[in-house]
Amino acid sequence: MFGKDQLQKYLLEVKESPDDPEAHFRLGAVYEQKGKVPEAIEQFQETLRLAPRSAEAHFNLGILYEKAGEGDSAIVHMNKAGTLFSERGDAENKERARKRLRVYYEKYGFKPTEGSEPT
Length: 119
Hints:
The protein is built from six helices and no strands. The longest helix is centred in the last third of the chain and has 18 residues, at 91-108. By secondary structure, the protein is mostly helical. The protein folds into two domains: 1-52, Serine Threonine Protein Phosphatase 5, Tetratricopeptide repeat; 58-119.
């Protein structure tokens, strides 16, 4: 669990290195652990602005958007995470993303069209 000191550390890191996607990712993770969903979303979005192919940031955004009840965004990000994990040969995380994606499809009544189902 991240404490107040960790939050301050990562806030300072982002301030000192605003163009470092990893700094934003770490700050997003702290916010996520603290249950600060909007702040976490903002940091993971910034991670993607700086590193658009971050499968981990997409995965975390999928989870956070689902927590926020934003099914469409959750599905988009979890689908992208699965694709990016697949592209880099990370079968374990690809499967984790795919399992969550199937749950989101069910929860939000999404019926993928032929060819749009993730591989």
